[in-house]
């Protein structure tokens, strides 16, 4: 009898663990590392205090590899103190990776693609 009780407790623990792990996997995608890399490599292009500067080769490479829609979703107010979201969106378009399907990028409402023409 004691053996069955222990096995049932282990099964319940495994079930709860599986449910919690699956919930986390379905949650927000983790692209914070991509955001940080893009903000660092493309710093000269994204700066508030300068005119838009065309991206370097390394910046373009990072943009092409990054999930820009996810980065838009995780941009914080602190990030926006460091970079211009308008310039981020311009960078994405210039690199052929316009942000589509995300209503907001940081605190900025993303215009529909036809407004870019």
- Give the strand order, joined by hyphens, for the main sheet: 1-2
CATH topology: Hydrophobic Seed Protein
What is the CATH C-level name? Mainly Alpha
Q: If classified by CATH, what would the architecture be?
A: Orthogonal Bundle
Helix content: 55-70%
The count of β-strands is 2
Quaternary structure: single chain
Name the helix and strand elements from N-terminus to C-terminus, one letter apiece.
HHHHHHHEE
Summing up helix and strand content along with how strands pair, one would put the structural category as: mainly alpha
Alpha carbon gap, first and last residue = 73 Å
* Uncertain regions spanning at least 5 consecutive residues: 22-26
Computed Rg: 21 Å
The count of helical stretches stands at: 7
> Could you say how many structural domains there are in total?
1
- Sum up the overall morphology in one term: elongated
Approximately how much beta-strand content do the residues carry?
Answer: under 5%
Topology:
Blueprint: H1 2-26, H2 32-41, H3 43-46, H4 57-65, H5 68-74, H6 77-82, H7 85-94, E1 104-105, E2 108-109
Helix pairs in contact: 2-4
Give the structure's gist in a few sentences.
This is Bifunctional inhibitor/plant lipid transfer protein/seed storage helical domain-containing protein. The chain is mainly alpha-helical and 117 residues long.
Description:
Residues 1-27 form the signal peptide. Helices cover 61% and strands 3% of the residues. It is mainly α. The protein has one domain (32-116): Hydrophobic Seed Protein (Orthogonal Bundle). Strands 1-2 form a two-stranded antiparallel sheet. Strand 1 (104-105) and strand 2 form a beta hairpin. Helix 2 runs antiparallel to helix 4. It is elongated and about 75 Å long. The termini are far apart. Residues 22-26 have low confidence and may be disordered.
